[in-house]
Design a protein that fits this description.
The protein is an all-alpha fold. The protein is built from 21 helices and no strands. The chain folds into three domains: 197 residues, Up-down Bundle (Growth Hormone, Chain: A); 53 residues; 217 residues, MFS general substrate transporter like domains (Growth Hormone, Chain: A, Up-down Bundle), CATH 1.20.1250.20. Helices cover 76% and strands 0% of the residues.
Length: 492
């Protein structure tokens, strides 16, 4: 087989394994939320106790993400990816077999260990396999995992807990995980970047436990109150550890994460955009189903089916990303997509109460069109200038941002929703309007930030264009404040 043939085969193998595994992990992160009430009744425990099924998973996930780049460079990307899928799949089986809440929490923590390595390692393999100019072509498929999976999870989870049993929210992972392992074992190739790399223990402790402590504070704040000692202490400790992590890594010759990657404009701006975009998207996933149930009076399944057109909109929009990205560039594509998302969210906010089910579906479909045009292209632009040697580190950093930003946004929105109607058990329409407006403001922040992402910063990800298109890029470069050197000239 020719070198080109082997290369194409490797690209397909990486794409299949990563997207399928990521779909499994992304769905699992949302599907469990639907079953919390059922689990509370099944194991005869309080809501606060069963919440650790989610919290334990998030914390173990946070601890492992910073170290994922080192593990992949040291032991090989194929070995670590398949190992993480194995851990996640086995933990899913053990979760389904749990006989008490303690066992379930322990096995969910085990799931988080697998998930914490799976996403960043798989992403680094994908970016290494596909050259920058071809990454737009895989975004429609990648969108199935990153956006479609979490939006369809409530519907699937609701069906499992009402028609079958709670065990199926974990058993559904088994065939997906096993097939991914078989396919990956047969077709993936191994890659080691730094087999003799030294493990940065202090960086791992500062980053992993700092991120976990910070996310724990955000997770518990809305429920316990931001003045609660455990929330304050964990938040302060988390921030202090993350600050210590930054100071340590910038001075280290062998850092756990190469934070100097933020010197690259494309990576820095794209990371900021994804913080806003993912924060707004997670807010939508939180608020829309809750609004439809609490204000409109829909059942859980009816709410899921009503906002399912959002997923359809994302899927339709994703099919055009490869063209819009290369034709308009990431700045216009992302900024326009987020603007559409914000506008449609405002239309939904002020018209949803009196809207018919089909009017709601049309609004959410259009909102999904904006989400697809914004959330997917930023994955391409972030790694435009990241070298092969730095891909593992870049993926770990990018995924840390993707985890922390939504946690912060959800904590903010949940707190505002509760405090807006502190005297009511059920949030009012006014409280929802306030939180939807805040969610829109978060998305608007991403749209504005995207205007700073000049096309020349990500030139490697864009196909050769006509003289007219190049003139547009040169005109962008001559805009005020654009006299700085290109990202290829900046240090990474």
């Amino acid at each position: 087989m020719t070198k080109f043939g082997r290369r194409v085969k490797e690209q397909h193998a990486v794409a299949v394994v990563y997207v399928v595994a990521l779909f499994m992990a992304s769905m699992d992160g949302q599907i469990v939320n639907v079953a919390l009430s059922t689990l509370s009744q099944q194991f005869h425990v309080s809501t606060s106790s069963v919440q650790w099924v989610v919290t334990g998973y998030l914390l173990s996930l946070a601890v492992l993400i910073p170290a994922s780049g080192w593990f992949a460079d040291r032991f090989g990307t194929k070995r670590v990816l398949l190992g993480s899928i194995s851990i996640f799949t086995l933990a899913s089986l053990l979760c389904a077999l749990s006989t008490n809440i303690t066992e379930l929490i322990v096995f969910r923590i085990m799931q988080g260990i697998g998930g914490g390595l799976l996403t960043p390692v798989g992403a680094s393999m994908l970016y290494r396999a596909f050259p920058p100019e071809r990454r737009a072509s895989i975004q429609p498929t990648l969108g199935l995992a990153t956006i479609v999976a979490p939006t369809t999870a409530p519907i699937i989870g609701g069906y499992f807990v009402t028609k079958l049993s709670w065990h199926w929210i974990f058993l559904v992972n088994l065939p997906i995980g096993v097939l991914s392992l078989i396919f990956g074992t047969l077709f993936l190739t191994e890659h080691r970047e730094s087999p003799d790399a030294r493990f940065d223990l202090s960086g791992f402790l500062f980053a992993g436990f700092g991120l976990a402590s910070f996310i724990y504070s955000l997770n518990q704040g809305p429920e316990r109150g931001w003045g609660a000692p455990v929330v304050l202490v964990s938040g302060i400790v988390g921030i202090a550890l993350l600050v210590a992590f930054i100071r340590t890594e910038l001075r280290s010759d062998h850092p756990m994460l190469r934070l100097r990657l933020f010197h690259d404009k494309a990576f820095r701006i794209s990371s900021t955009i994804t913080a806003f975009a993912n924060g707004a998207f997670q807010g939508i996933l939180l608020l829309c189903p809750l609004f439809l149930q609490e204000v409109k009076g829909y059942t859980g399944l009816a709410a899921g089916l009503t906002y399912f057109p959002l997923t359809v909109g994302v899927m339709c929009s994703a099919q055009t990303v490869r063209k819009t990205y290369h034709h308009f560039g990431p700045r216009k594509t992302i900024s326009f997509g987020l603007a559409v998302m914000v506008i449609m969210l405002m239309v939904f906010t002020f018209n949803a109460q009196s809207a018919s089910p089909w009017q709601l579906r049309i609004m959410l479909f259009c909102l999904g069109l904006g989400v697809g045009q914004s959330n997917l292209p930023v994955n391409i632009s972030a790694f435009a200038n990241i070298s092969t040697a730095d891909t593992g580190h870049g993926s770990a950093i990018f995924n840390m941002v993707r985890r922390a930003a939504p946690a912060l946004a959800v904590a903010l929105l949940t707190t505002v929703l509760a405090s807006a109607d502190h005297h009511r058990l059920v949030p009012s329409l006014g409280a929802f309007k306030v939180t939807f407006i805040i969610c829109g403001a978060i998305g608007a922040g991403g749209s504005i930030t995207a205007l700073f992402l000049r096309n020349e910063y990500v030139a490697s990800t864009m196909r050769s264009r006509s003289a007219k298109d190049r003139a547009i890029v040169e005109d962008d470069a001559s805009s005020p404040g654009e006299s700085e050197p290109s990202p290829q000239q900046s240090s990474t």
